[in-house]
Amino acid sequence: SEKVHSRPQAERGGKSKEMCKKYAESVYIILPDPIGSGTFKYDTCAVVEPLITNGKDAEAREYPHMALIGYGNKNSISWLCGGSLISERYILSAAHCTDSGS
Fold first, then answer.
1. How far apart (Å, rounded) are the C-alpha atoms in residues 87 and 64?
2. Are 31 and 44 in contact (CB under 8 A)?
3. Structure confidence by residue, pLDDT tens digits, 10-25
4. The Peptidase S1 domain covers which part of the protein (predicted)?
5. Quick one: pLDDT at residue 102?
6. Ordered strands of the 76-85 beta sheet
7. How far apart are CA 60 and CA 78, in angstroms?
8. Are 68 and 79 in contact (CB under 8 A)?
9. 8 Å CB contact between 64 and 77
10. What is the pLDDT of residues 44-78, one digit of tens each?
11. Are 16 and 10 in contact (CB under 8 A)?
């Protein structure tokens, strides 16, 4: 009789765990301890790095499908998000643009 070989079962959630670990490693850097007692992990997650280099301002109406999303009132507006016009009534933006944090 012919042997039946089954495919090895991957651990459930294994890829997620692998990628999470890989990401976690990328946000920490190892630095020498300031008092000379070894090394420590420095979390770079909250360190702001400029994402645009040598960029230039867009001209008015250069990207007519883009939207600038501001917060506040007409006397004090903070322009913090952007989006894409997907119809006459809707703008597609990232979830954090509308999350009030509550």
1. 12
2. no
3. 667 778 888 877 877 7
4. 52-100
5. 47
6. 66-73, 76-85, 91-93
7. 19
8. yes
9. no
10. 776 677 777 888 888 888 888 899 888 888 788 88
11. no
